[in-house]
Amino acid sequence: MKLVALSLALAIAVGYVLGGRLSSLSALKPRYGSLALIGLILQFVNPPGRWPFVMLVTSFVLLTVFVIANVRVVGFAAILAGVLLNFAVIAVNGGMPVARDAIVASGQSDTLAPLIEHGGVKHHLAGPDDRLLFLGDVIAVPSPVRQVISIGDVFTYGGVAVVVVSAMRRRIQPLLMRSATEAGRVQL
Prior knowledge:
By secondary structure, the chain is mainly α. It is 55% helix and 6% strand. A two-stranded parallel ribbon has the order 1-2. A two-stranded antiparallel sheet has the order 3-4.
């Protein structure tokens, strides 16, 4: 979560440096936003039995539909790549494999024992049976963030940052001017 917050803060700072306004984000109206919200919530629900994996897969299906519905918005193609990469590794392994070396390199050695003992559907310590491990959580982000991420996360966070910066830089044209521009009558 630290890296998500850091990515958003950096995107907002870049948006300001490039002359954008935070208020311009309100003009961004993604389609099917409720699917994204439900998809994210499902990733944090952890009922007993086989349900956690079903909920995680359902989460990724909802997120994929949301991202595809918005893929024409600048940055969503990168988000789609990230979601699909993470979905692939999770689907073939029954959860996200996390590399031991990356945990140690990120300064989180204290999380190894709980991950081994209680690792679940969302994350588990990578083992010899895991496939597509290069798509798993194998990238160490050291202190102060202390997190392990996947290449899918890099695409997703990067895509979200592009969406934020692009939306902040968007200038709202007057309706008349926008209509004329869309009709091809006025060149800006």
